C-alpha cells in the first residue's frame, strides 16, 4: 500500500502499513541502556525544552556525520549541507518544484537562449567576518567550484591557492563558463549553453562564502570553520559528535519567503551526530533532541501516538537508493546477463521491509517517482523472477559448482566494499543473501570511510556500490551516468555516447515535455544495459517536538529551514 502524503505531516494516530505496523518500540529503559553504550545521556530529558522562552538552544539529531569538511563547495553529504546552509546562504531557495524565492538575490532574469542569468543582489548584507557581500563574492564562490576542472583542462586558475576539489556543487553549476560583474550588486552568470536546472542547482550546495575568509584562513582552515552571511555563525565542530552554531544578531536580510526575516530565535543550534537510529528516535521521545532526521520504523507507531511529538513525512525527488555496477571492471560483472540476473533476483518489496521497515517505496527507475521526468513505463521492465535470473546465468554459461557458479574455471565472485553505516551494511547483506540463492558469491567488505573513498575513486576496485541523491531536478541522471562524471559520481563508469547526447540535450531543453521524453529514454537505457538496480524511492520521516514551530523543509526534502523556528 502506498501511504505517501506529499508535503504533509502524518497524523499521530494514522495507520501505517508494512513491517512497522503494530511493532513495539524499545522501552525508555532499554533506550537508556543502549544510549549509555553510545555515549548519549538521557538524564537531561526535557531540560532543554524552552517553551515560551526567547533564545535557548535547539538540538538537532543528525542521522550521519559530516564528510570531513564544512566547505559547502567541497562536501558531497546532505548532512553537511543541513548544517552549512545556516552559515552560507545561496542566491535562491527552492520551496517547491519550479518555485524559486529570493535568497541573497533580490531578483533575476534569464536570457532568451537560457545561457545567461543576471542577478540583482541584496544590499546591506555582511559576512560574519564583517566584510561586505557583493557581486565579487558571488563570482569568487562560483569560480572556485570550477577552478579544479579548468586547471585539469589546462587553464590555470586565477588564484591557484584556492583551487578546491569541488564536490556535488560542480554538477549543480553545470556548463558554467564565467561571471561578469556589472556593478557591486549586479552579476551576470554566463554558461556555455542553456542549462535549465541552473536555479535548482544553485539552491543548497551553492552557499556563498566570504572571499576574504578563504584567502586569509586558507582552504583547510576554512573547511573547519566556514564564514558566510547566514542567520547562524560557526561555533564549534567536534567530529563524530556535534557541530554548534551561534546566533548572528546582526542578521536582517532573510528571504521574504520566511516569516522571520531578522535574527533567528535560538541563541544556538547544536547538530548532534547520533548514528544509531533507535537511540536517535529515543531522544526525540525523551526531549533530549527537538528535531531528528530518519526515525526508527519500529518506533513510528509510538511516535504517532505521542502528543508531544510530531512526525513529518515527505516524498523526495532524486535518484533514490540505487546500486551501480562497475562497467569498467573485468570479470563476471562485465557480463550483462550477470547484471540483469542480479536485478531479477532481488525482491524489492522484501528489501524495503527488511531494511526500511516498509516505510519506503520499491523502486523501478534511477529517478524517484516524485521527480519531474520520472518514467512510469520502467515499472514494467523488471520483476522479482528468480527463474528468469537463473535462466540468464545458465544461458551465459555460468554453471553451478557447489553453492556458487563458475564459468571456464572463473568463480562468479563479486566485490562490494562499503562502510560501517546504515543503511549501507544492511543493504549489502540483504543483497548478498538474495544473490547467493542464484549462485553468486558477493564479498561484502566493511572499510573506514577514507579507505573506501580510495577504493572507489582511485583504485576503482569494486564491482558494486550504492548511491543516493536527493535532487530537485532529473538532471541528477547526468550526475550519475554522464561520461564526463567518470571518476566522480558516475560510479558505474558508463561511457555511452548515446546516453551522453540525451543527457546534454535534456538539460539544454526548455520545454518540459521534451525534457521528460529525453529523460525517459535515459532511464530505459541504463536499466536495459544493467548499469544500475534501483532499490527504493526514499520517503523522509523526520520527527520534532510538538512545541517546535516555524521549521520548514525544502523541495528536495533534505534541508530543514530553521530561520523562523522557535519553541511555543
Automatic annotation (TrEMBL):
PROSITE patterns: TAT. One of its GO terms (cellular component) is ATP-binding cassette (ABC) transporter complex. GO terms for molecular function: peptide transmembrane transporter activity. It comes from the Bacteria. Residues 100-485 form the Solute-binding protein family domain. Keywords: Signal. The keyword Signal applies. InterPro entries: Peptide/Ni-bd, SBP_5, SBP_5_dom, TAT_signal. GO terms for biological process: peptide transport. Belongs to the bacterial solute-binding protein 5 family. This is Oligopeptide ABC transporter, periplasmic oligopeptide-binding protein OppA. It comes from uncultured Thermomicrobiales bacterium. The lineage of its organism: Bacteria, Pseudomonadati, Thermomicrobiota, Thermomicrobia, Thermomicrobiales.
